[in-house]
User: What shape does this take?
Amino acid sequence: YPAFSPSVLDRPNLVGLDVVRVLAMVMVVIQHTLSLADREDLTVIAGLSIGQLGVAIFLVVSGLLSYESRRTPVGWLSQRLCRVYPAFWIAMIGSFCLATLSGYKNASLSQIASQMLGTGLWTHADELVNSPTWFVSLILACYLATFLSRMIGQPGLISALSSVGLTIMVARDAAPWLLSHFLTY
Assistant: This one.
């Protein structure tokens, strides 16, 4: 199995980070499952949303791995997009088909195009078919920022400046959930 090839097992830090990412995804699944079961009261522990904490953990690990990548900026971005888009497109095709068949939501061609590109959060935030796909818009924006900072050749400087700017914006925003996620990445 490629996932357990000797090269991967020689890097236990990656295996450990994969475990952390799986734990983060499980937290998000628990959040969504409890929300669907109308038990949102069980999704907050000590004032923290299980799902939002899972998203934050996932983004921290993703940001670390993107910073540590030895690939060229173009190679890194290409690899990321090739990993994200196929599964996302399958999920979105299914979501659009089910939404249309059930009459749950109608979607315009611009919405379909935007969501298939992964930009739905920025163009149709209140009309998303399969609302959890907001995360794809977020992670793609983070990947684009990483790509640009790596192309400039100063990812540390760009990260530091971005962190300061985002921290100021989070402190000033009454509902900074999205900005907070950019900051955790």
Observations:
- The two ends are 30 Å apart (CA to CA).
- Confidence is low (pLDDT under 50) at residues 1-9.
- The first strand starts at residue 44 and ends at 45.
- Strands lie at 44-45, 48-49.
